[in-house]
Amino acid sequence: VHAVPSILKNLDLVEQSDADVVIIGRGGGSIEDLWAFNEEPVVRRVASFSLPIISSVGHETDTTLTDFAADQRAATPTAAAELATPVLNDIHLTLANLTSRLQTTMLNQLNTRKELLSKLEKSGIFVKPERMYEVYAQQVDQLRLKLMQGMQQRLHLAKQQSMQFTHRLQLVSPEQLLIQQKQKLEWLHKQLVDSNQNYLQDKQIRFQQLVEKLDLLSPLKIMTRGYGIVFKDGDIVKSVDQIEEEQPIEIRLSDGLVNATVTAKNKESL
Fold first, then answer.
1. Alpha helix (H) ranges present in the chain?
2. Does residue 113 contact residue 151 with C-beta atoms inside 8 Å?
3. DSSP 8-class letter at 39
4. How far apart are CA 156 and CA 256, in angstroms?
5. What pLDDT is recorded for position 78?
6. Burial of 36 by CB count in 10 Å (0-12 exposed, 13-18 middle, 19+ buried)?
7. Which secondary structure element, helix H or strand E, spans residue 255, and what is its range?
8. Would you say 243 and 232 are in contact if contact means Cβ atoms under 8 Å apart?
């Protein structure tokens, strides 16, 4: 009974600290020695405690009211310590799951961007050939901006997760284990950064190749080699059957337009 004030005082002190979990208990003894843990003030204080609390009073065969008021009961103080300390394999499993989820997200984003690039490559030539390059260039710029923003957001999230796990390891792990886990986290972080940089570099190269390909396919580029596009009444002429003699036509060259009149036509078999 004399231990009740001391127990209540120490519970108040612990509740004001930054502890994650609290163990209340003592070693074995007679029922009189353990009776303080049956007193109403102690039991009520344990039941209303704001932090997770584990009761470990006496031996495995001993039972007190705090065992029922606490969040968890442990047969011995050693068992209580094991309950309060996370298993290393659980931490490894959590890290592996987060890494797998991040890789899956990145692969999904990559596949989405590949599909969009495939659609860009298969798009037809616009009616106004001089505007075709502009549209593709805008799409490439927008896609590149979205990719960069997405990679930056994922890198920021990975850094936050890395910092959170480092902090948790510092709270619950021995010093040597903390050093090993911190080194592993730093290695994973470096691998993630290197992977992101390589991914972005590959995409930049792919974008440049696409721009060069689009430039080669541009009608304006082809016309600089001596070719022209013939128009009649604003429509592109694809066959001599579309025009008649004495009809006016326009010929678009790389540096301007030529107005002409058909004086003769001769259809050839290719």
1. 4-15, 31-34, 40-47, 65-69, 77-84, 88-122, 129-172, 175-217, 219-223
2. no
3. S
4. 51
5. 83
6. buried
7. none
8. yes
Q: Which DSSP helix (H) or strand (E) runs through 26?
A: strand 22-26
Sheet of 229-232, strand order = 235-236, 229-232, 248-253, 256-261
Beta strand 235-236 with 256-261: parallel, antiparallel or unpaired?
Answer: unpaired
Whole-number Å distance between alpha carbons of 111 and 106: 9
Take residue 77 and report the two structure tokens written for it: 């103080």
Please give the single-letter amino acid code of residue 76: T
> Of 215, 28, 18, whose CA–CA distance to 129 is shortest?
215
Residues 100-112 have pLDDT tens digits of 899 999 989 999 9
- 2-28 mean pLDDT: 86
Of the candidates 234, 266, 268, 269, the one whose C-alpha atom is nearest the C-alpha of residue 248 is: 234
pLDDT in tens, 213-262: 877 777 777 777 778 889 988 888 888 888 888 889 998 887 888 999 98
Bridge-based pairing state of the strands 72-73 and 229-232: unpaired
